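Q: My labmate handed me this sequence with no annotations at all. I'd like to see what the chain might look like in three dimensions before we decide whether it's worth expressing. Could you predict it?
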Amino acid sequence: MTLQTELDLLAQRIASFHEPAPLSEDDRRDFFENTTIALMAGGESSRFSSVLDGTQANKSAFELPNGDTMIEMCIRMYRDAGFKRFVALVFHNAHSIEERLGGGSSLGVEIIYSYDPEIPIGKGGAVLNALENGSIPESHNLIVTNPDDVILHFPDFPEYISSAHLEGVRNGAVATAVLGQGQAYHSTGMMVVDNKVVDTKMYPFIPVPAHVGITLFSPHAYPYFRQLFSLTEKSDFENVLFPLLAGEDKLWSAGLTRGTWIAVNDAKTYKQLVQELQ
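A: Here is what I predict for the chain of 278 residues:
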């Protein structure tokens, strides 16, 4: 049996996705009108520093060779689907984002800003802070998205994940994690039997579903943020909230079955994005 055969069997054992049913017009209108898009843009982006090369800008607002930015690309993707209300969760180099976006009028949307406290509080704390300061309405659904997790070649992506989320809500879930179907291993993979290498494969695809940095929450998830997170310490919801919701059968998923996902974290993935945009 080859390494690829084993990986294919692993894929069948650990993940299966189906396409969600299309939204009805009533569901679509209600969900889009009562949802806030939270742009997670407060990180320090230390691995991206070689690309910034001293530029005092948040990674999401760093100007690409084509004059665009990742945060504007993200906003347009959701705007073109029909979402109009955005909140930018900011901290490091927040000025670069606010100077670039303003109130959102140039993009045809409304953008407000939620500034983290003077200490880093992580993604969980950033959402809690926005709930506490009213930037996220208590009655609204929420899509938390990392602008540097770029989705390309999937024009109906916002509607696709919305329909998956509403399917999950109907099945008792309060959150939906958007998942890629796996990632390429960054080295040569090897299959070993009693120290003997029996097969090799350059950059094998590891079929473990990976969170792509986009999560949808219903208002029923907000009490969890108040119970689990604080404004005095750093904590991310992926490693705190996800295991709890999975244990309670309240975490759904939307499989990224089409398109391209690029997690732009460093110079290598930045170069990949630039090549895709060209």
